[in-house]
Design goal:
Layout lengths: L20 E5 L2 E4 L4 E4 L2 H4 L8 H13 L11 H13 L6 E5 L2 H18 L7 E5 L8 H6 L3 H4 L10 E3 L19 H13 L4 E6 L16 H11 L3 E5 L23 E4 L11 E5 L1 H9 L14 H16 L2 H16 L8 E7 L2 E9 L4 E2 L6 H11 L2 E2 L1 E7 L3 E7 L7 H22 L2
Parallel strand pairs: 3-14, 5-6, 5-7, 7-8, 8-9
Antiparallel strand pairs: 1-2, 2-3, 4-10, 9-10, 11-12, 12-13, 12-16, 15-16
């Protein structure tokens, strides 16, 4: 029987009771009623290696017995040193130093702080402005939320936010410039140079973007040439290029990092989620050698951080997760299963509401529309994608839904991010349930 005890949890939706998960193994969650649920979103695109991996639990327990905490201003640990080296190795030497934090919002905020500190120590203290994009998401703390362009996440807290510049979204399905991939002249990239010139290059510190979007645009990504042009513009005006790979990093797109799909290396990367595969709260800001060298040669201090930055428990988990990904060839598997998931998702196009299917690796999104030809979105009052999430859960699949991809005013999406260990048969089961769920929700909506 469900517990009748008073609930003291302050939930995301305050009056909604969520299932109590008592066990998780592989791609499955088990609730206190004995139901088995396919974790089609890997939590919030986090659980890359699957649930219940004994080696990770053993690593964490062993580290706890050695040392569970030291303060990073006074000490470091061998595990932290090893974790930093392993992260840099996965970038093929593109990155040189790592600042470990507790999550994605801290990672993006630290990235912006490092960019600012770099310019100060490089003799350009006037550089402070940050340019980002509408329909982006960079975190929920006030700084990260300021350069986030996900309007629904910003709305309640707008009075507290810094007024940063947002460019049009890089969103081919709903291109703000009215172009198609065939007619694209990279207007969304060129917009960055225009904005830098309008603000004054001497004031612009950094540009931050997601190479593959998260919930705000459900796995949308720009054309391949986009980030190459962004890199050229940033270099021209001494603006640091920051890529938010909190969701797409550490294998999710079928490569270690999504930027590796493009001919453009960022100056700074923000990581979290897959960095620990959900086994411990951790994030990281990873920088090129020039960032560290400039600060070290001048002020010699980066005075930022939180109590749990560089935590040895987190570091030990990061080391084991990276090793586990390599030992089991899971990045390659992610690419393979991502291709298969993309094929299976194509079967959903027969539904009258499926407008677009997009993504890379095992980060895939589906957008729903009222009219496929015009791309007219569904009425937001229908909460169409939320209905899909709720109905799918009743049938044994957890899928993440989102809304507002059409300039924050409308647009319904779901996003897939299952563990890399998922099999073809499990993908078949997952898509069959989503297919059935979509039919139910469509009939209810009058399609």
């Amino acid at each position: 029987m469900p517990s009748t005890k008073k609930d003291h949890i302050l939930s995301f939706v305050l009056d909604k009771k969520t299932p109590a998960i008592v066990k998780a193994r592989g791609i499955y969650l088990y609730d206190d009623q004995g139901n088995r649920i396919i974790d089609a979103s890997g939590g919030a695109i986090v659980c890359s290696i699957g649930h219940g991996v004994e080696e990770i639990a053993e690593t964490l327990a062993a580290q706890m017995k050695k040392v569970s905490f030291v303060f990073r201003r006074a000490f470091h640990t061998p595990e932290l040193e090893e974790a930093a080296a392993k992260v840099c190795e996965t970038t093929n030497g593109d990155m040189d130093r790592v600042f470990f934090v507790s999550g994605g919002s801290e990672a993006t905020e630290t990235a912006i702080k490092l960019a600012r500190k770099y310019h100060i120590d490089n003799g350009n203290p006037g550089k402070f402005r940050v340019i980002s994009r509408w329909q982006s998401y960079h975190g929920s703390t006030m700084g990260a939320l300021s350069w986030t362009g996900f309007t629904s996440r910003r709305a309640d807290f707008t009075p507290y936010l810094k007024d940063f510049v947002h460019l049009p979204a890089t969103f081919c399905y709903r291109c703000w410039y009215g172009k198609s991939p065939e007619t694209c002249d990279l207007e969304c990239a060129e917009a960055l140079e225009n904005e830098i010139l309008c603000l004054g290059p001497e004031t612009v510190s950094a540009y931050i973007a997601e190479p593959v979007s998260g919930h705000s645009l459900a796995a949308a990504s720009p054309p391949n040439a986009h980030f190459k042009r962004i890199r050229e513009i940033c270099d021209k005006y001494d603006v640091l290029m920051i890529l938010d790979e909190v969701m797409s990093g550490v294998g999710r797109t079928g490569k270690w990092y999504a930027y590796q799909h493009h001919e453009a290396v960022p100056d700074i990367i923000a990581l979290a989620k897959g960095l620990s595969a959900g086994y411990f709260p951790v994030g990281a800001t990873v920088v090129q050698a020039k960032i560290h060298a400039t600060i070290a040669a001048n002020s010699g201090v980066f005075g930022s951080g939180h109590t749990y930055c560089g935590n040895p428990l987190a570091a030990a988990v990061v080391c084991r997760v990276i090793d586990y990904l390599k030992e089991h060839h899971l990045i390659k598997r992610c690419a393979q299963m991502g291709n298969y998931l993309a094929e299976k998702l194509e079967s959903l196009r027969s539904h009258p509401t499926v407008g677009d299917i997009r993504g890379k690796g095992l980060q895939r999104g589906v957008e729903f529309v009222k009219d496929k030809q015009t791309k007219e979105p569904l009425d937001p009052q229908m909460h169409f994608s939320q209905q899909i999430q709720d109905e799918a859960l009743l049938r044994g699949v957890h899928i993440e839904s989102s809304s507002g991809c059409d300039r924050g005013q409308a647009g319904d999406t779901i996003i897939f991010g299952p563990p890399f260990i998922i099999t073809r048969n499990q993908i078949d089961d997952m898509i069959d349930i989503i297919d059935e769920t979509l039919s139910v929700v469509e009939r209810r909506a009058g399609f």
